[in-house]
Amino acid sequence: MAGKVTIDDVAERAGVSIKTVSRVVNREPNVREKTRETVQAAIEALKYRPNQAARGLAGRRSYLMGVLYDNPSPSYLANLQAGVLTACTAASYGLALSPVSHSAPDMVDTVIAWLKHTNIDGAILTPPLSDNIALVTAIKALGVPCVAVSSPGPGSGPANVPAVVIDEEEAARQMTVHLISAGHKNIGFIKGHPDHYASSHRYAGFKAAMEEAGLVVDTALVKQGYFDFASGKAAGELLLGAANRPSAIFASNDDMAAGVMHVAHQLKLEIPGDLAVVGFDDTPLSRQIWPSLTTIRQPIRLIGERATELLLQAISRDTAATNPVLHQLDFELKARGSSATG
After folding, report:
1. Would you say the CATH fold of 168-297 matches that of 61-166+300-331?
2. Can you give the residue ranges of every domain in the chain?
3. Contacts of 44 (CB under 8 A, 6+ apart)
């Protein structure tokens, strides 16, 4: 077809009204599934691309979605954002990213000001922002739909929001069982950032597995980390310098596990012969270090996609406040060289 494809062309090809095409493009409800499929087929055949500015004026939307983050793991953020972008592109939405210092005293006011300035249609909150009840409550009061990532929608009542999670506690329990099954009894643990919902649940899973096996958690071998390489390295130095050195260390994410392995290599310790090391997240880093890292694979990219899909539903149907959804995805234990026994 010569010239720029218009909404009129799509309507003519699909045999529907322009208004129906608009409803499909804007992901509005009350469109028959068969009609939606017919219109979508016409859009794809004609390679029609909606005019974002016109869409915004017609529907009083910006067709822009926001991701707010304060996470020290670059791999986690990159994977999550890739998933969000995939879903945004499919829905003809733009994406705005905003770094936020969750510990700043004016954090809530800063976020609300940014939301007003950008006029985004909805926000995806990553941990630890997704765990902050005051922030979630303020965003909802502003009337902006939001979805929490790796948090079950903090609190209850007015702070409840749709969320995408994995079973953090069960995943950590299974990883600890993996180490115990390999013969380890003296196991060190590095906690994640205390402001993250996931941190306490991963530690709870570790403790549960130890107790189930009749093993005592040596609190001297439990160190605080902050989900970054530097804190993992610092905790590794303490653990591997202890008189009662552990035979295995479970770090609450891959970045901290890499820090432990760095220290172990400096001390000329063989991995896994002298020390087994395991992590959590299955970021690309886990396959780039040597030996490759045993870890929990949480589908970070898929989490981003699902969170975006939930947000799009909340935007189009205005259900965020009245019908919060908890969407739990599967995890997988990836056993690799850092904990091999043979």
Report:
1. yes
2. 7-58, 61-166+300-331, 168-297
3. none
CATH architecture of 61-166+300-331: 3-Layer(aba) Sandwich (3.40)
How many C-beta neighbours within 10 Å does residue 100 have?
A: 20
Total-model pTM: 0.80
C-alpha–C-alpha distance, residues 286 and 301, integer Å? 16
Helix (H) / strand (E) containing 187: strand 187-191
Would you give per-residue pLDDT tens digits along the chain (342 residues)?
A: 456 788 888 888 889 888 788 778 776 667 888 888 898 898 888 888 776 555 544 456 788 999 999 977 788 889 999 999 999 998 889 999 999 999 999 999 999 999 998 889 999 999 999 989 999 999 988 999 999 998 876 655 556 889 999 999 999 999 999 999 999 999 999 999 998 989 999 999 999 999 999 999 999 999 999 999 999 999 999 999 999 999 999 999 999 999 999 999 999 999 999 999 999 999 999 999 999 999 999 999 999 999 999 999 888 765 444 456 889 999 999 999 999 754
